[in-house]
Amino acid sequence: MSDRITTADVSKVASLARLTLSDDELAQATTELGAMLDHFAEIDALDLDGVEPMSNPTHLVNVMRDDVVGDCLDRDEVLAAAPVAQEERFRVPPIIGLDD
Known about the structure:
By secondary structure, the protein is mainly alpha-helical. The chain has a domain at 7-44. Helices cover 39% and strands 4% of the residues. It has a two-stranded antiparallel ribbon. A hairpin with a 2-residue loop joins strand 1 (85-86) and strand 2. It is flat. The mean pLDDT is 89.
């Protein structure tokens, strides 16, 4: 178990987050958070002088394709296949405001 975080610390944070943890869950969370903090300390200990920060690890500029108008389905043909069409639109049942 890490000496960076105590069970009391985790219990207080869980309480602030309105989480109810059993004793086993509290012990597991303390162990896992302690391991994370130990790992972060290892990262902090690295000599990173001269390493330039990066904002994107893949250096991609734009992965989106150009927006190009293509062939579309015929509106009348699509509406003809709909269960119910009204005023050149699909008619669907309401989902908000129903009295259940």
